[in-house]
Amino acid sequence: MYTIGLIDEEEDQLRKIRKTIKSNLQHLPSLNEQKIDFKSYDLNDDGNLIVHQAIGEVINDVKENLIHGLIIDYKLIAKSGSAKGTDIYDGLKTIISEFPTVILTEIIEDCLKVDFVDPDKVYRKIDFFNANSEYSVEKTANIFRNMERYVNQRESLESNLEHIKEIMASDNSQEIVDELIKVETSLDNFVPLHQSHIDKAVDSGKLKEILELIHEINKSLE
């Protein structure tokens, strides 16, 4: 089952998103039996806090594997201000660049004023909400294809990482250390591993020296 996160403060818009996707699935034979759930995020009344709040909650859910894709409304209005969905999009892509995220907007050109937004990830609301139309069905299919790709690649990387850790229990050769760094760096684009930039930049040879030192210390304590 896939769960799609929704960021939009208007309940009417949230209902339209859910209804559109469920309706479009009927036209996608390969996905027709796919179970789908949604999680909407409650937004803070302070427009200045919406972005940080949303990013934090989404990141936590991604780490717990509770959502597999995200749909963001471009224009988020709060009682004391406003925020743009592109700000949330940018914040998430900076941390988890491979997480499937799309933006819904009335005017696509507004989203494309910033160069960090992928044009393919911006959907026009009026066309997307026209359920069962070619455009709407195609965009829904894209959402599911990207979620499937994300889930499969994340699971593969996580499995590979665990395998490497098992090997390192008895083999901390340079080759294994390099492979560990490679896999962790790739996985960090799918789910935060709490690596700082310093951690990512650490020389693999230095890491190997540290591991060997730890190994020697452990042997001396036996």
Q: Which helices and strands, and how do they pair?
A:
Blueprint: E1 2-7, H1 11-25, E2 36-40, H2 47-63, E3 69-73, E4 75-78, E5 81-84, H3 85-95, E6 101-105, H4 108-111, E7 122-124, H5 125-128, H6 134-168, H7 174-187, H8 197-201, H9 204-221
Parallel strand pairs: 1-2, 1-3, 3-6, 6-7
Antiparallel strand pairs: 4-5
Model description:
- The protein is α/β, with parallel strands linked by helices and 222 residues long.
- The protein folds into 2 domains: 2-152, 3-Layer(aba) Sandwich (Rossmann fold), CATH 3.40.50.2300; 153-221, no CATH class.
- Helices cover 55% and strands 14% of the residues.
- It contains 9 helices and 7 strands; from the N terminus they run E-H-E-H-E-E-E-H-E-H-E-H-H-H-H-H.
- The protein has helices at 11-25, 47-63, 85-95, 108-111, 125-128, 134-168, 174-187, 197-201, 204-221, and strands spanning 2-7, 36-40, 69-73, 75-78, 81-84, 101-105, 122-124.
- The strands form 2 sheets. A 5-stranded parallel beta sheet has the order 2-1-3-6-7, with helices on both faces.
- Helix 4 links the parallel strand 6 and strand 7.
- The longest helix is centred in the last third of the chain and has 35 residues, at 134-168.
- The radius of gyration is 21 Å and the shape is elongated.
Tell me, rounded to a whole number, the average pLDDT: 84
CATH topology tier name of the largest domain = Rossmann fold
How are the strands ordered across the major sheet? Answer: 2-1-3-6-7
Radius of gyration: 21 Å
What's the CATH C level of the largest domain? Alpha Beta
* Unreliable stretches covering 5 or more consecutive residues: none
Superfamily (CATH H level) name of the largest domain: Response regulator
Q: Strand portion, in percent?
A: 5-15%
Total helical elements:
9
H-E string: EHEHEEEHEHEHHHHH
| Count of the domains | 2
Major β-sheet, in short? 5 strands, parallel
- Overall 3D geometry? elongated
**CA-to-CA gap between the ends?**
48 Å
Tell me the total number of β-strands: 7
CATH architecture of the largest domain: 3-Layer(aba) Sandwich
Given helix and strand content, the structural type is alpha/beta
How much helical structure, as a percent, in the residues?
Answer: 55-70%
